[in-house]
Specification:
Rossmann fold, globular, 11 helices, 18 strands, Quinone Oxidoreductase, Chain A, domain 1
Length: about 350
C-alpha cells in the first residue's frame, strides 16, 4: 500500500509499504478520506514531539470502510463505513471512571502511537475495537465530512468542559451567553458552528477575532455576529466566555480582560512547547475567572459530534476548501501551512 511516512522534522516520504493484516480482535480500515490537522503540521514542523514516532505514517482525522476483520471480531463486516475515534483509553483508571478518558494516563492516540491515516489502510488495534472507538457511519454522512468528526468532537469536549453545553444536552445557563473566539481557522470555525448549531445551545452573541481578511469573511458566512481584527478588539468585561482557538500565548491576557466576573476562558489550542506569557493574577482573583484547558476528546464526544452531523444540526462540509491525492502531499502540506486553506482533505482512492 501507499503511505506517507514521517521521517523527521521537515521530511515526509511517500512509500510503498506492506499492507497490514488483521490480528485477533483487530480491524483493518481502508482509508477513503483523511484530513490534515494543525497537529500534523506541527509534527512536520518539529514543534510537536510528544508521542510522535519517525518512520511511520501520521494522520488521525479519517473515515473509510472496513477492509478486513480479525478473529473474534463482532459487529463489523467488510464494507462497513466507519469513522475513527482516536483516543483509546484503559477504561479502568480514575480518569476513565470519572468520564475523563481523554486524560487516561495509559491512553494511546491512534495515528501517533500507531500507524496513522495518511495511508491506504490503517490497523485498528484490538483494544480500540473492544472499547468502541470504531463508529459505524449512517449513509447520510459522506466519508469526506466524516473525516471532520474527530476535530469537532475535540471542540465539543471543550464546550462541555467550560459549561457551554450540559452533559444531558441542555445548557447550564438560562440566559443567553456572549462568547468571543480568538482565531477563525478550522478549529475556531468549528467552535462557531457549534455555537450556532441550535438544539439547546445557550449562545446569544458570538464575536470572532481574526487577523486574516479572508478568514474574517468566512466567519461572517458561518454565522458570527461580530468579526474584528486583533488591533480593533478592545473589550473589557464584555463576554461570558472566551475560547483561545489559536496557539498564541499572548492572547491569554486579552481573553482574561475580555470576560466578565465569573467568566470562563478556554485555552483550547495547542501551544508551543516553550510558549510563555505574563498575566496579571489579580484579574483571575478579583473577577473569579475560571480557566480551562481542553485536550482531545472522548468516545461520547465523538458520538455526539456524529449525531449533530447526521441530524443536520451542523454541517462542517464548507470547511473543506482543498482536496488532494496522496501523491500531491507536498503541495497539500504547503497549502495547509500557508493558511490558504481551511481544511485540506486527502482522497485516498486510486484513480
Amino acid at each position: 500500500m501507499r503511505a506517507l511516512i514521517f521521517e523527521g522534522p521537515g521530511r515526509l516520504r511517500l512509500a510503498d509499504i506492506e499492507r497490514p493484516e488483521p490480528g485477533p480482535g483487530e480491524v483493518i480500515v481502508r482509508v477513503r478520506r483523511a484530513a490534515l490537522c494543525g497537529t500534523d503540521l506541527r509534527i512536520v514542523a518539529g514543534t510537536k514531539t510528544r508521542d510522535v514516532r519517525t518512520g511511520h505514517p501520521i494522520g488521525h482525522e479519517a473515515a473509510g470502510t472496513v477492509a478486513a476483520v480479525g478473529q473474534d471480531v463482532d459487529g463489523y463486516v467488510e464494507g462497513d463505513r466507519v469513522g475513527i475515534c482516536v483516543v483509546v483509553s484503559c477504561g479502568r483508571c480514575a480518569f476513565c471512571r470519572a468520564d475523563r478518558e481523554n486524560l487516561c494516563r495509559t491512553r494511546i492516540t491512534l495515528g501517533y502511537q500507531t500507524d496513522g491515516a495518511l495511508a491506504e489502510y490503517m490497523r485498528i488495534p484490538a483494544h480500540a475495537v473492544r472499547r468502541g472507538n470504531l463508529f459505524k457511519l449512517p449513509e447520510a454522512v459522506p466519508l469526506e465530512v466524516a473525516s471532520l468528526i474527530e476535530p469537532l468532537a475535540c471542540c465539543l469536549n471543550g464546550h462541555h468542559e467550560m459549561g457551554l453545553r450540559a452533559e444531558d444536552g441542555r445548557p447550564h445557563h438560562d440566559e443567553r451567553q456572549f462568547i468571543v473566539i480568538f482565531g477563525a481557522g478550522p478549529i475556531g470555525l468549528l467552535h462557531l458552528l457549534l455555537a450556532r448549531a441550535g438544539d439547546g445551545w445557550p449562545i446569544g452573541h458570538v464575536t470572532i477575532v481574526e487577523p486574516r481578511a479572508e478568514r474574517r469573511e468566512c466567519a461572517r458566512r458561518f454565522g458570527a455576529d461580530e468579526v474584528v481584527t486583533p488591533e480593533a478588539f478592545d473589550a473589557d468585561d464584555a463576554f461570558d466566555a472566551a475560547i483561545v482557538a489559536v496557539g498564541v500565548p499572548a492572547l491569554l491576557p486579552t481573553a482574561l480582560r475580555a470576560v466578565r466576573p465569573c467568566g470562563r476562558v478556554s485555552l483550547f489550542a495547542g501551544f508551543p512547547v516553550d510558549g510563555t506569557v505574563t498575566i496579571d493574577p489579580n484579574l483571575i482573583h478579583y473577577k473569579q475567572i475560571r480557566l480551562f484547558g481542553a485536550s482531545e476528546s472522548r468516545r461520547r464526544d465523538y458520538a455526539e459530534a456524529l449525531e449533530l452531523i447526521a441530524r443536520g444540526r451542523l454541517d462542517p462540509a464548507p470547511l473543506i476548501t482543498h482536496r488532494f491525492a496522496l501523491e500531491d502531499y507536498a503541495e497539500a502540506f504547503r497549502v495547509a501551512a500557508s493558511g490558504e486553506a481551511l481544511k485540506v482533505v486527502f482522497a485516498m482512492d486510486r484513480v
